[in-house]
Amino acid sequence: MRIAIVHYHLQPGGVTRIIQNGLAALADKLVQAVVLTGKQPPSGFDGSWKVVEGLQYEQERPCVTSTDLYTQMVTAACDALGGMPDLWHVHNHSLGKSTVLPDTLVMLAKQGYPMLLQIHDFAEDGRPANYRLMLNNMAGGKVSKLSAHLYPRATHVHYALLNKRDYSFLTCAGGDSSCLHLLPNPVDLQLECSDHEETPQRDEYLWVYPTRGIRRKNIGEFLLWAAAAPKKQRFATTLGPDNPLERPRYERWKALALELGLPVEFEVGASQGVSFVTQLKMADALVTTSVAEGFGLAFLEPWLIGRPITGRILEEITHEFCLAGVKLPWGYHRVDVPLQWFGEDKVIEAGRKGLEHSMAAYGRTPHQADMERLLAAWIVDDKVDFGRLDEAFQERAIRRIVKKGEERMALQPPCLPQPENYSNIVTENCAILKHAYSLKEYGKTLFRLYQRVASSSVSSVEALDGEILLDHFLAPERLHLLRVD
């Protein structure tokens, strides 16, 4: 089977890692694959690749039309594979990184070529600038017209999705179950369960947040736990943000931690020059406070190196992990803070402005019922979820707890849940991950999916309903101010 895998680049990152894992997982299968990419990958990329310059990001690519890109892609694929691909496997085509690639794919679909569109991230989910770029440049401002460009629907056009949330959203938008497929990421640190090491012996308990400190990772909540922690507890993060637009907020958190004397070390991996796995093994326990994830590796990888994970549970992501048998007993779904700390009117006004701004970015206006749905999700028994608030509100709460330590008892939970007696859970979770989420199982699933897509019957090409997709991603109860630009 000849497969053309398409992505904008092969620089280090999540999608590149998935592509490399896929190629490795298919190594023993009857598959000939080439990756078409916008620029030459860094040295060490293991796999066949061809540069198609028209695949570069919007601001970097040469001026090409969708027809030009079609010719470039077909020529490169045929040259590498010795003929037309049996299947086109495309990553994140609808994210807004290119305004020509989606129409190129529609051209391929209309000619009857089987296609697997793997969506890791949605422009409709907290990326309004990307969405507006496509809406204005591709569809003249009309959402219904944009849908025809981004989301072709046909029996030979299939979608691979990371989680059941995305699967259900596309189903509601008109996707047929025969063309929608769950394809969870593999969880592979190239470790065996027997590689577990004992937790380092020291006087202080070390919590590590293995994350790049971008806004949706909710660093303020991590600092809240540092402020509320008893003595002899230390906190550390692993990486700072690459995006320069993320740096000012991140640097503000670093400055606040220094000013208040919080027991937090930032970018511990960079300062100590140790590997990612080594950073995880340094911890007594790992933490996530993120308010949004695409797949949720942070809830799974720690178990492979014998460490428990605690922190904010994202039900729409973690539910299917739990259905697979993974246990996450030390998390919480919200951090309730008294409304009176901020003033109820101020919180409600911030929610209203955030909702208006979030919806306006996608050309919508909220109704009173939308505001009622937001407040029902945010506020329970005169307490508001800390993770719904922006940095200014969060900083006020942190300062209050540092000034009066007893105030932490007003939080629910009052401190970060500390895992205990977790060796059996580590063993059980690790066994599940080594089976259900292993590279070997991923290869089997991916190959079966390739076979199914390649053998699909061909139909006329229509489109999913982009308005319905927006309805679901912009649901008021999903709003966090940390995701409002």
Topology of helices and strands:
Layout: E1 2-7, H1 14-25, E2 32-37, E3 49-51, H2 66-81, E4 87-91, H3 101-110, E5 115-119, H4 128-139, H5 143-150, E6 152-153, E7 157-161, H6 164-172, E8 180-182, E9 205-212, H7 219-228, E10 233-239, H8 247-260, E11 264-265, H9 268-272, H10 276-281, E12 285-288, H11 301-304, E13 309-312, H12 315-323, E14 331-332, E15 336-338, H13 344-360, H14 368-378, E16 379-380, E17 383-385, H15 391-403, H16 423-436, H17 439-454, E18 462-463, H18 466-473
Parallel strand pairs: 1-2, 1-4, 2-3, 4-5, 5-7, 7-8, 9-10, 9-12, 10-11, 12-13, 13-14
Antiparallel strand pairs: 6-18, 15-17, 16-17
Helix pairs in contact: 1-17, 2-3, 4-5, 7-15, 13-14
**Largest beta-sheet details:** 7 strands, parallel
Number of helices: 18
- Report the mean per-residue pLDDT as an integer: 93
Q: C-alpha Rg, in Å?
A: 23 Å
Strand-residue fraction? 5-15%
Structural class: alpha/beta
Q: Which range best describes the helical content: under 10%, 10-25%, 25-40%, 40-55%, 55-70% or over 70%?
A: 40-55%
User: What is the 3D form?
Assistant: globular
